[in-house]
Amino acid sequence: MPETSIVFPRSVGSTTALKLDDANTLQLFLVDADVPLYNVSVGKVRFFANADQVREQVAAYHEVGNGSMPAPEWKWTFETGFEHSVDGHNNKGWRLTSLPA
């Protein structure tokens, strides 16, 4: 498998694209610069991922070799903080959860 160079967007709201093959292009949209966290889309597949997870998914895409992006084994969720405090101030942020196998 060839090493793929990924250019990640650097400012919130910006987008970059990576051509995976003749049929598919991966789009990266920077959602949170602190993590950093990206909204990733390839065709109809969409998910949130950090930079290492993006690299992992691109490698998995090439490894599978059937032109489809495998589903990630994780899920990023945004906790508003309202579940834990009255004003919602203390616990806002992204949380990574693993999906059952």
Helicity range of the residues?
Answer: 10-25%
Average residue pLDDT: 87
> What is the straight-line distance between the termini?
26 Å
Based on CA atoms alone, the radius of gyration comes out at 15 Å
Backbone structural class: mainly beta
What is the spatial order of strands in the main beta sheet?
A: 1-2-3-4
Strand content: 35-45%
Major sheet details: 4 strands, antiparallel
User: What characteristic shape results from the CA principal axes?
Assistant: globular
Uncertain parts: none
The tally of helices reads: 1
Give the SSE string. Answer: EEEEHEE
Work out the number of β strands: 6
What this model shows, in words?
With 101 residues, the chain is mainly β. The chain has a domain at 15-73. It is 14% helix and 36% strand. The radius of gyration is 15 Å and the shape is globular. The two termini are 26 Å apart. The mean pLDDT is 87.
What are the defining features of this structure?
two-stranded antiparallel ribbon, globular, mainly beta, single chain, 101 residues, 6 strands
Summarize the model shown:
The protein has 101 residues and is mainly β. The chain has one helix spanning 51-64; strands at residues 15-19, 25-32, 37-42, 45-49, 74-79, 93-98.
Helix and strand arrangement:
Blueprint: E1 15-19, E2 25-32, E3 37-42, E4 45-49, H1 51-64, E5 74-79, E6 93-98
Antiparallel strand pairs: 1-2, 2-3, 3-4, 5-6
